[in-house]
From TrEMBL:
Signal peptide: none
Gene source species: Mobilicoccus pelagius NBRC 104925
Protein name, UniProt field: UPF0301 protein MOPEL_073_01510
Pfam short name (any one): DUF179
Stated family: Belongs to the UPF0301 (AlgH) family.
PANTHER family: UNCHARACTERIZED PROTEIN YQGE, UPF0301 PROTEIN YQGE
Any one GO CC term of the record: cytosol
Amino acid sequence: MNPSTNLAGRLLVAAPGTGGDVFHRGVVLVLHHDEDGAHGLVLNKPIEADVSTVLPAWQEHVVAPGRLFQGGPVGLDTALGLVRLEHDDAGEALGILPLFDRIGVIDLDAPPEIVVPHVSAVRVFAGYSGWSSGQLEDELEAGAWFVVDARPGDPFVPVPEIVWSMVLRRAGGTLAWLATYPEDPRLN
């Protein structure tokens, strides 16, 4: 993989027709990408469970809608906390690992009182999305994903159902046109 193609910090937006419940109209924030593969979190798939069902101490600190999100099909028995850092130096706080653009991950075993003063938004994900070496590149070449620049607020949109069309619209051009693509084009 060419270093200039590192997608960490960018969004993968599922093309119409990209299948599966998790990836259908999914928007994935790529957390890590190198020659060994990639992993990220689907930003717009809340599940019917409050954070309190698995991490009661964190429920009052997560942003709307206050639900767990399915980060992907891998490791559904694990939880990952994604945060927007309040300040550039917030990564010096215990329990926070900064990634890029004031986005970081947190240690969900840390007491919320240690982490929360340093962040402006928290979202908790069950599972993650993962690709082995070359797999994501193959999916990109096949047209399954569009690569779009991320903004720091993207992982924390309070109405996750609008994220797919919101990101496509702001990308402009042909992608903006796809934002209105019907759920079932046969009914158009």
